[in-house]
Specification:
The complex is a heterodimer. In chain A, 40% of the residues lie in helices and 20% in strands. Chain A is an alpha/beta fold. In chain A, strand 11, helix 9 and strand 12 form a beta-alpha-beta unit. Chain A starts with a strand and ends with a helix. The chains are: A alpha/beta, B alpha/beta. Strand 9 of chain A pairs parallel with strand 2 of chain B, so a sheet runs across the interface.
């Protein structure tokens, strides 16, 4: 760890990715995250790494796919409409078992929507998004510091499971300035081309083929079962969450990313008035921390889910609660960010306050 | 007995999935021979397309990736930029390259990516059953132009090498044909020039190969070669449209 630097979230995330070993960036401009590719475009050449502005998000993700097939640490960053364009590539990447990292700075939708912070891509990120049965690991930081630390995890998880890792943020995290402390630089000199990579056969005795195609259904089913096995392992080992003031909680707020951060203030307001409420903040949105929800079901009177969407993570919270307690919801849409007071007021209504 | 003719070592023993009389086999052979003669086989990654040659990696024995429809040049760019020592080529049909993948192709060419594209033009979508392609000739009947391709309804055939030759990024842009022994020998020369452009890091290189599709054209292999010669080559002429200094 080094000194604390005051940085804008959208630039800090790029610096963190670079320190975490990102050797290549391919992307396409889109607001509200343009500072991120711009930062990469300055820093990557300085370090002798690859930066390329693609002609579209469609091309960008397929460039990422190509680089991922060589086992190189590769990243792209975009925002909701751009991420929609990339879904085809995500699906191919999933069934090719290649690692990469994708940052989605979510903005208001659907369609062109707006450029304000939103969380409406939860379904798309956690349930697959493209065609076929697949998942990407989805990480949801709630501060600039956590976002930076998470870039290291993102690349490590991607390599460990040969999977795409999505870091799901929003324009608010990107636009705020906070002091950050970066972890040590990854030792990129130690990176070796993996034995499965398609870089030319060279001295290898076998040739490598990376494809998501398997024309015989019985073989494609086997391929799918292998993927599912990988997901079960990830669901078992990689679940992350934060519990905030949950020890004595009678009520629980569930929220991720920016909304969770705001809700912490709401919880403190409630606590000042003697209301014992805590937060369960999923850090991995996939795999979702169902177990902690189940664990707290008997302790609390109800769940109160807050999101900047019409209720997406809400469905996973309900799966965890499994009908045993009421689950209420408060959401803002289209790029509107709830205030702490607003959340607190909505929460209090449910306890009859 | 003296061996006087054999398949290139780079071609596998696997039976191809191509129809009888399809020139994909000829193109595969020319590529394999050229890779061997230029000592590139062990450095090569081929990016295969979606189309009849979607299984190409079963037949040419190099490292390979299978791209999404039309995205081969983007994928090849991704590989080549992080592994400049690899020899990276795409193999694409006319639907894949000239329709859904035209943006990826034009921009890879404009950037002068050090990759090579072999572009098979058989005037239709072969694998999906013979629909109109950007290269379908005026008047040509396909399953989606049952009354023949009409300019007012379906526009005009696209001349990809001629378009790409207007850009500064490509080092070598050519069209050859696979309809006769003489043209096949010439096609191999063009392919080798394209490979040399990449090997020397001069820029993007592409060779269009005018091919045939006996099955969907509903012709015998011989008839389809005659049609290529008489009807297709006048519209898509053989030629080198851009050759920068250093390409051999």
């Amino acid at each position: 760890m080094g000194e604390k630097i005051l940085m804008k979230g959208s630039e800090a995330i790029a610096e963190a990715a670079i320190r975490a070993g990102a050797m290549a960036f391919y992307g396409y401009p889109i607001t509200p995250q343009n500072e991120t590719p711009e930062y990469f475009s300055r820093r990557m050449p300085e370090l002798g790494r690859t930066y390329l502005q693609a002609e579209s998000e469609v091309a960008a993700i397929n460039m990422v796919y190509g680089a991922a097939c060589t086992g190189t640490r590769v990243i792209t960053t975009s925002s909701s409409p751009g991420i929609s364009l990339m879904q085809e590539g995500f699906s191919y990447i999933a069934n090719s078992d290649v690692p990469c990292v994708v940052v989605n700075a979510m903005r208001g939708g659907p369609g062109l929507g707006d450029i304000a912070p939103a969380q409406a891509d939860y379904f798309q990120a956690t349930k697959g998004g493209g065609h076929g049965d697949y998942h990407s690991i989805v990480l949801a930081p709630h501060t600039v510091q956590e976002q930076c630390d998470m870039m290291y995890d993102a690349f490590d998880l991607a390599d460990k499971y040969r999977i795409m890792v999505v870091v799901l943020v929003d324009g608010l995290l990107g636009q705020m300035m906070e002091p950050v402390e970066f972890k040590d630089w990854a030792d990129v000199k130690s990176y070796k081309t993996p034995d499965w990579a398609t870089v030319g056969q060279g001295e290898r005795s076998n040739r490598n083929i990376i494809t998501s195609l398997e024309i015989l259904p019985e073989d494609l089913e086997k391929m799918n079962l292998k993927l599912q096995e990988k997901y079960r392992t990830i669901e078992e080992i990689e679940v992350r969450f934060e519990e905030y003031k949950m020890d004595d909680a009678e009520y629980v707020i569930t929220a991720f990313g920016t909304t969770a951060r705001i809700a912490k203030t709401s919880v403190n307001m409630a606590r000042k008035e003697g209301i014992r409420v805590g937060i369960i903040r999923p850090i991995t949105l996939y795999p979702f921390p169902y177990a902690v929800i189940e664990k707290r079901v008997n302790q609390v009177k109800f769940f109160f889910d807050v999101e900047m969407n019409a209720g997406q993570m809400l469905e996973d919270v309900r799966l965890g609660v499994n009908g045993k307690k009421p689950v209420y919801f408060y959401g803002r849409l289209g790029g509107m960010v709830p205030t702490a007071e607003e959340i607190y007021t909505a929460f209090k209504k449910q306890i009859g306050g | 007995m003296k061996l006087i003719y054999k398949a290139p070592d780079t071609m596998t023993e696997k039976d191809t999935t191509y129809c009888p009389g399809c020139p994909h086999g000829i193109a595969h052979r020319l590529i394999s021979e050229s890779l061997e003669e230029m000592n590139l086989v062990k450095k090569t990654v081929i990016v295969w397309p979606v189309g009849c040659s979607v299984f190409g990696y079963y037949f040419i024995g190099t490292d390979a990736v299978e791209a999404a429809h039309g995205r081969a040049c983007a994928m090849a760019t991704g590989i080549k930029r992080v592994h400049p020592e690899s020899f990276v080529m795409t193999y694409q049909g006319d639907g894949d390259l000239a329709s859904i993948g035209i943006a990826e192709t034009v921009h890879a060419a404009a950037r002068g990516e050090k990759i090579t594209t072999i572009f098979i033009n058989n005037g239709n979508y072969g694998m999906t059953g013979g629909q109109m392609a950007p290269t379908t000739l005026i008047g040509q009947v396909t399953t989606t132009t049952p009354y023949g391709r009409k300019p007012e309804a379906n526009g005009f055939p696209m001349h990809v090498p001629e378009m790409l030759a207007t850009l500064d990024g490509p080092a070598y842009v050519a069209r050859a044909a696979l309809d006769s022994p003489q043209h096949i020998i010439q096609a191999k020369k063009f392919i080798q020039k394209a490979f040399s452009a990449q090997a020397k890091r001069l820029g993007f290189s592409i060779v269009e190969l005018v091919s045939t599709c006996p099955t969907n054209w509903k012709m015998t292999p011989v008839e389809s070669m005659e049609r290529a010669r008489k009807e297709v080559l006048p519209v898509f002429p053989i030629g080198e449209f851009r050759v920068i200094k250093g390409v051999e």
